[in-house]
């Protein structure tokens, strides 16, 4: 018996693959700071669990395939509060942003089609695209340019006759790159000129720092028919395990296609949808507090990382990731050194080597991604450990 070529072409997540080594070291008594995964430690707002606790039906029934009405209404109100108007039928609730991406790709891609994605990019896009037998064509960006890609010429060079969409996370994972409304317009105009879909992955929408503007592809209604927004409660409300995401689009054909897939998978968990509804009713001050916390973590990490001689790192404006090009020959080797051989006062650190975030062979070898998901003190210590580790690693060689 054989597995499909699709599955054979897929790889294990570079974000998770070093976890067993870290665990082994931990068992030897070394403290590890985990900066490899976008799992926030911020407390999930209590209204989520309280809403589920007050569920008093006798049976947990299937929900409808689109998603529970109160949740869909709450999401429409949430967008309205930012001046973006959506009707109920423009929303589809999904099992996390992950299923949202998978459903959208399946609606758009035939075998051999491609979507453009700025690299470095969120590696799980690879898995979802591979399941369609399509592929990702990267728009290459660099740490020296702060991972900037909203340039018409740069994007157009990558388009070919099999290109169906431009897909991008904004703010970015792994880059933390944010987009201004002007950047969004540039991308939309290219998409319109070449008749492409735009898949705007906005799961980090509110995570914008330094007083920067929160933007969305939903803010330019003239492009609404080609824009498909992918969203999730995972990061916004620190609810990764709830697995509630959603798709927002005014394109009726897309909604019809999505519904066919949604009916096939029946529904999204009923109780989690009830909890999620309350999250969307939180006041805006919730985001202000959470963003202030992440901003202080970013500042703590950046202050230490930028002290490393020879490092290339521009302060990221959003999401909760920081990419850095380090003065090491190979970031994966460096991580293995940190996990196997390095410690300072019984502590070391785990991060993600960035090569796996690139589709282009050979890129990202010296880059790492750190997720600032620990408090500011721990972020500063983790970044210090990276700095000390580089010295030890390069002296060893
Ligand atoms: C850019 C981006 N999109 C989508 C997701 C998936 O989110 P979810 O937990 O909602 O499936 C993630 C998770 O890390 C992400 O970083």
Throw out a few tags for this protein:
397 residues; Aspartate Aminotransferase, domain 2; seven-stranded mixed beta sheet; three-stranded antiparallel beta sheet; 12 strands
| Strand content bin | 5-15%
SSE string, helix = H, strand = E? HHEHHEHEHEHEHEEEHHHEHEEEH
In total, the number of strands is: 12
What is the CATH T-level topology of the largest domain?
Answer: Aspartate Aminotransferase, domain 2
The termini sit apart by 46 Å
What does this structure look like?
With 397 residues, the protein is an alpha/beta fold. It has two domains: 5-43 and 285-396, Aspartate Aminotransferase, domain 1; 46-279, Type I PLP-dependent aspartate aminotransferase-like (Major domain) (Aspartate Aminotransferase, domain 2). The strands form three sheets. Strands 2-8-7-6-5-3-4 form a seven-stranded mixed sheet, sandwiched between helices. Strands 9-12-11 form a three-stranded antiparallel sheet. Strands 1-10 form a two-stranded parallel ribbon. The chain contains 13 helices and twelve strands. The structure holds pyridoxal-5'-phosphate. Pyridoxal-5'-phosphate binds at residues 38, 96-98, 122, 169, 173, 201, 203, 232, 234, 240, 245.
């Amino acid at each position: 018996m054989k597995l499909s070529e699709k599955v054979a072409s897929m790889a294990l997540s570079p974000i998770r693959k070093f976890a067993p080594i870290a665990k082994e070291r931990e068992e030897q008594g070394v403290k590890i700071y985990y900066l490899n995964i976008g799992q926030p430690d911020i407390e999930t707002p209590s209204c989520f669990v309280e809403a589920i606790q007050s569920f008093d039906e006798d049976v947990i029934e299937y929900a409808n395939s689109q998603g529970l009405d109160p949740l869909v209404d709450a999401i429409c109100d949430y967008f309205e509060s930012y001046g973006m108007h959506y009707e109920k039928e423009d929303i589809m609730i999904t099992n996390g942003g992950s299923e949202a991406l998978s459903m959208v790709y399946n609606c758009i891609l035939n075998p051999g089609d491609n979507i453009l994605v700025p690299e470095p990019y969120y590696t799980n896009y690879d898995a979802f695209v591979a399941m369609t037998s399509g592929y990702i064509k990267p728009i290459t960006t660099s740490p020296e340019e702060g991972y900037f890609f909203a340039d018409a010429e740069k994007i157009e060079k990558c388009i070919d006759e099999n290109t169906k969409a431009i897909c991008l996370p904004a703010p970015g994972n792994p880059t933390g790159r944010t987009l201004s409304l002007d950047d969004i317009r540039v991308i939309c105009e290219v998409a319109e000129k070449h008749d492409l879909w735009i898949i705007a992955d906005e799961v980090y929408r509110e995570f914008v720092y330094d007083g920067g503007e929160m933007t969305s592809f939903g803010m330019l209604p003239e492009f609404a028919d080609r824009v498909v927004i992918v969203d999730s409660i995972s990061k916004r409300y620190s609810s990764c395990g709830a697995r509630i995401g959603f798709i927002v689009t005014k394109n009726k054909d897309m909604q019809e296609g999505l519904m066919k897939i949604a009916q096939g998978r029946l529904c999204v968990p009923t109780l989690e949808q009830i909890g999620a509804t309350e999250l969307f009713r939180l006041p805006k001050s919730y985001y202000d507090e959470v963003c202030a916390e992440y901003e202080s973590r970013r500042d703590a990490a950046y202050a230490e990382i930028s002290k490393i001689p020879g490092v290339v790192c521009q302060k990221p404006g959003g999401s909760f990731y920081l990419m850095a090009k380090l003065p090491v020959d190979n970031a994966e080797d460096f991580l293995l050194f940190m996990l196997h051989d390095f410690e300072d006062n019984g502590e070391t650190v785990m991060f993600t080597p960035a090569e796996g975030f690139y589709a282009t062979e050979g890129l990202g070898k010296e880059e790492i991604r750190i997720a600032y998901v620990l408090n500011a003190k721990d972020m500063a210590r983790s970044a210090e450990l990276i700095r000390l580790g580089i010295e030890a690693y390069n002296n060893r060689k």
